[in-house]
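Researcher: I'm preparing a figure for a lab meeting and need a structural model of a single chain. I don't have an experimental structure, so a prediction will have to do for now. The sequence is pasted below. Please return the structure as tokens so I can convert it later.
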Amino acid sequence: MGGAKETLGFTKDELKRTRFYRELYEEIYTTAKAEGVKETILQLLTRCFGDLPAEMEEKIRDLAPERISALAGILLDMTSLGVVDAWLQEHSEN
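Model: Understood. Here is the structure written out token by token.
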């Protein structure tokens, strides 16, 4: 068997150089980043407009990372929950 620094016959450095590792790392990083942005958006909307309807919060949590980035980019232009809801209706996948 290999030493403590080997995983599945690869050293840690060799594993990090594989395409699989890089793609998996990027997917995890993107997902984690989007989740953090979602939480920030929810906090800002709650602070501006009070408690959010559960359906609206769910739609925001279900947004794909690229849509979360788009929402974050226009968040300051949102003047009411109605405007937020209209945006979500247009950009949600469900």
